[in-house]
Write a structure and sequence with these properties.
15% strand; 57% helix; binds nicotinamide-adenine-dinucleotide; EC 1.1.1.86; Ketol-acid reductoisomerase; alpha/beta; 348 residues; binds (2R)-2,3-dihydroxy-3-methylbutanoic acid; branched-chain amino acid biosynthesis; binds magnesium ion; 6-PGluconate_DH-like_C_sf
């Protein structure tokens, strides 16, 4: 593993140079990897594995939209695409990529197929960490590990197709064969990770739940909404408010921050913007830090897991979710956003 300095802290990472694809292919040559679930991560991971020359099949419920999507992605019923139980039977490594709530419902079936020597792969520490709530307790004679791409399955696939790679974390929960760690690394490379950093199931799930509720999605939507509302309340038009809140961030500044870091961004805007941004970042940190502390605590106590399981296990959860998403979609800010996006020259 390469030892790298992250802002003064040394950490080990696994890169493709050190664990090349050929090594992953050779290590997994005798395995059948069954990707169970074809939602967001399922397509990204299974297609990348397939294109990386690894023996992979997909297990999915027949008759639904996702089965049809799998067929249109080139998975062949009876050859590489199976009903879930058939795929579980054929697998030596089961990649459990159903939604976290659905994993609870299907667990008794998966467990039945987890015979000695098989492996169980997750992309989240959720099911294992919150075992008191999920009931997911694997038999002792199987390897259990995770590879968690740090981003959407959509980006995992897009970046792979562009010859790039998303970073992923990996962790071993149970090593029955002495090979669990290498299985995690080989699969991490196989699913298209750019590099891998090691963690454990608890730290993966607590950081991930915090991130998606926080600065990745929850907090950012909250800050967008707050600034947009203040601009609108002060007489700015929707297009002006949206451009100054979202469009410039995603189209201009964030790609530059991604490339060069925030210090570079601060150095490469006007001195006027620089002065203001340097003065205002601390007040924003101070205002939001208590909310982040409350959030982290809610994750740590298992409260966020409880909410997620309860809400996402209800029979009408999709209808309720759709109503919430409709409200967001129809809010003025995102309606303005739709119009702004339609004006981007590359869309014409
Ligand atoms: N979405 C992401 O980009 C992302 C990123 C990193 C990690 N993860 C993790 O990866 C795993 C999979 O997440 P996802 O977002 O791809 O899942 P998802 O919500 O898209 O669902 C995946 C599949 O589960 C199937 N499904 C739902 N209920 C079912 C049931 N009762 N029986 C059988 N199948 C059912 C759906 O048809 C779908 O094909 C989760 O552990 C998640 O936390 C997701
Ligand atoms: C893509 C995210 C937000 O990083 C992932 O954690 C998820 O749960 O979808
Ligand atoms: Mg997540
Ligand atoms: Mg995540």
């Amino acid at each position: 593993m390469a030892k790298l300095n992250f802002g003064g802290v040394e950490e080990d990472v696994v890169t493709r140079e050190e664990y090349p694809l050929e090594k992953a292919q050779a290590f997994l040559a005798n395995d059948t990897i069954a990707v169970i679930g074809y939602g967001v991560q399922g397509p990204g991971q299974s297609l990348n594995l397939r294109d990386n020359g690894i023996n992979v099949i997909v297990g999915q419920r027949k008759g639904g939209k996702t089965w049809d999507k799998a067929v249109s992605d080139g998975w062949v019923p009876g050859e590489t695409l199976f009903e879930i139980e058939e795929a579980l039977e054929k697998a030596s490594i089961i990649c459990y990529l159903l939604s976290d709530a659905a994993q609870i419902e299907l667990w008794p079936t998966v467990k039945k197929h987890l015979t000695a020597g098989k492996s169980l792969y997750f992309s989240h520490g959720f099911g294992i960490t919150y075992k008191d709530q999920t009931g997911i307790v694997p038999p002792a004679d199987v390897d259990v590990f995770l590879v968690a791409p740090k981003g959407s399955g959509t980006s995992l696939r897009r970046l792979f197709v562009e010859g790039k790679g998303l970073n992923s974390s990996f962790a071993v929960f149970q090593d029955a064969t002495g090979k669990a760690r290498e299985k995690a690394i080989a699969l991490g490379i196989g699913v298209g990770s750019g590099y891998l950093f090691e963690t454990d199931f608890y730290r993966e799930v607590t950081s991930d739940l915090t991130g998606e509720r926080g600065s990745l999605m929850g907090a950012i939507q909250g800050i967008f909404a707050a600034q947009y509302e203040v601009l609108r309340e002060n007489g700015h038009s929707p297009s002006e408010a949206f451009n100054e809140t979202v469009e410039e961030l995603t189209q201009s500044l964030m790609p530059l921050v991604a490339e060069n870091g925030m210090d570079w961004m601060y150095a490469n805007c006007s001195t006027t913007a620089q002065r203001g941004a340097l003065d205002w970042w601390r007040p924003f940190r101070d205002a939001t830090k208590p909310v982040f502390e409350k959030l982290y605590n809610s994750v740590k106590t298992g409260n966020e897991a409880k909410i997620s399981i309860t809400r996402n296990s209800q029979p009408d959860y999709r209808e309720k979710l759709e109503a919430e998403l409709k409200e967001l979609r129809e809010s003025e800010i995102w309606q303005a956003g739709a119009t702004v996006r339609s004006l981007r020259p590359e869309r014409n």
